[in-house]
Batch of 2 targets.
Target 1
Amino acid sequence: MPGFGTALVTGASSGIGAATARLLAAGGTHVVLHGRDRERLDALAAETGGAALPADLAEPSDIAHLAERMLSGPLDLLVHNAGLGWAGPLPELPADRLTRLVAVNLTAPLELTRALLPAMLARGHGRIVFVSSIAGRTGVAGEAVYAATKSGLDAFADSLRFELDGTGVEVGVVVPGVVRTEFFARRGRPYTRSTPRPVSAERVAAAVVRAAEKPGDYYVPRWLRLPVALRGAVPGAYRTLATRFGAGS
Ligand SMILES: NC(=O)c1ccc[n+]([C@@H]2O[C@H](COP(=O)([O-])OP(=O)(O)OC[C@H]3O[C@@H](n4cnc5c(N)ncnc54)[C@H](OP(=O)(O)O)[C@@H]3O)[C@@H](O)[C@H]2O)c1
């Protein structure tokens, strides 16, 4: 795997982001490690030779500061990975949690991209990878707001692909199913279904690196593209099947 120069990985203090940072660093990339947990970021920085850059993505001033710091040098790869979930019936979702889900999962990557893209365009070179979710492509009962944030991210990434055609800046999207990380404990509801079977964070990290090397859409596991294709081709039949087999969380 070739190095990417400098990469910013958001949400690098845990799970998929930490695994991605390790993989990138092993390939010779200088990694800027973003998250909120300073202790974890410092430990990973020591391990990877990267630099820790804490910021709360729910705070617009933190996003602006993060962007300002990143603009002090060239950035070759931007990995939008930080995110959080929430599961349960929509009427039980607290208003402040809804605001936070949208701010961290959707507004923050949009804002960061808007701030960092001009420098990539000026250099005629750059890669932007979004960590989305299968929930954003198929919809999941009990995760309507989470799914909406990921769906929004997908539409943003697709639109940018058109907009950036021929500029040297390319966009990749990784669509994980269920991944063994702290995500479920943090959202307050464990994952109890039998399918999709959880995959490792390292497997998703490998897809993130592939999406940076050869921009496109990467499902993890790969078979997840099938329900998405079915939904696109025959949405009514898909909905009937998904309801029967439980598109629930
Ligand atoms: N796990 C899954 O099954 C799964 C499936 C599909 C998609 N995804 C997506 O994969 C991405 C990574 O999730 P994960 O599974 O690796 O979960 P995780 O282990 O909980 O990691 C989440 C990361 O996001 C960061 N983060 C959360 N809120 C933040 C905030 N307000 N400001 C800054 N950083 C914040 C966390 O940083 P701190 O801990 O330092 O705050 C942490 O580094 C997320 O976008 C998630 O939606 C996960």
Target 2
Amino acid sequence: MSGRMKQRRALNPVDLATLSVNERILRECHNLYVDPENGLVKVASNVGLNLLAPRKKIIVMLIGNHSAGKSTFINWYIEEHVQKTGVAIETQGFTIVTSGRKRESLTGNATLHLFPYLKPLQVISEVVDYLGTEVSTSKQKKFSLVTFIDTPGLVDGEMVYPFDVDKAILWLGDIADLTFVFFDPIGQALCKRTIDLVEKLNTRHGDRLRFYLSKADEAGDESDRQKVMMQIVQELCKRPGLNKCGFDMPTIYIPLSNKYVRCINQIDEVCKDIEKTINQTIQNMLNTLEKDCEHVAELINARIEEDNEAKTYNFHARSRVILLGLAGLFLPFLLFLNFMVSSFSKEFFHSFLGQNGTESLYTCLSPVRGFWQVIPNDYHFTALGIILVVSIMFLLLARWFTRLKPTMNRKERRNLLEKRDYVQNTVKVKKHHLYQEYLEQSITEQDL
Ligand SMILES: Nc1nc2c(ncn2[C@@H]2O[C@H](COP(=O)(O)OP(=O)(O)OP(=O)(O)O)[C@@H](O)[C@H]2O)c(=O)[nH]1
Ligand SMILES: [Mg+2]
């Protein structure tokens, strides 16, 4: 790589030491896109391609009726009490729960600053006032690779939300990698608002939706649980957008050490699902990185090819301008010379062209004189007009050909070629290394 290229923003040694392999892969990949100098986003934008940098974490949104246990699940996952829980309507807005260096609570505007991809949410009025972030230092489970979105409990009837909650959830569903729907057996599991939203989310991103029967320890005995589940599934299946049969609805509850419950707890499946999504996201991201590199290199090649063509066109255009310009000026010049020669005596020319020069001038102009003599005197003006019109046409044509195509200068061209080499070689090689590391880690895990 050329010395002109500055080095990519590297991870600091403390990060390198404390990050897991997956975390590092996601970060490095993200940096390959956002590097201010050679990042793919910038290089791509130079050739008219709009690329989005991948996120460093997956997004898991939790929705469900009020008191279904969404906030409790987040607290359990990260093993820290960051979200208020309780029987009252606890979560009234959207809370982003993410890992960071310092425990902190951030406001809506700070949240938008921290997660710029959430900015389009602003179109929903008032929502920013009900948006916040809880930063936790937890490193439990896969939390360092997950951003949770806790949502307000969904209720029917009188409850008035201060913003368009359905619209916000649908929009967040578009950006979330996973959306967990919690149905609790005692509350309003069959809340119409929840089912309406689930139906819409399912038609948009059915593959990202997961259904859980939460608080399963409170659902009574096994037959009660089955009954509740049947009711929920039946209700869901009534909807045209949801009538896929065979709903998978694991039963989950927050395990409490002092409470014995005779109920299968599939909460580990939820954690595995999150892990699976992280792994898929990493693989997709690395594949996309390679595709983006190829796309950018192709666009740069096309730009170079276009520039070559523009340069060839301009060369021909310039040649045509010179020829047409000469043609346009030549005839009037000859006529002017002839006029001069016939207006002055031979001796006049002798004085500054000499004998030979004057003879040559007369010889050169003899065809013009001959031509002029052939034309009857009455038509001299007409011939002069025709010659002038033809000359003007030549000059107009020359002017038309002076419209050159824009081309790159040498520096721009060299920069572009360097970026192509960087994308094709350095970034692609880096991608292969990251893939290798990812695979090695999976193999080691399987071996153990
Ligand atoms: N027995 C039992 N109780 C639970 C479980 N999960 C949550 N709870 C309790 O259920 C109540 C509501 O839980 P939250 O986590 O606040 O529910 P939420 O879905 O966030 O509710 P909103 O924020 O109002 O939408 C709390 O009192 C929790 O302690 C569970 O798995 N088992
Ligand atoms: Mg809550």
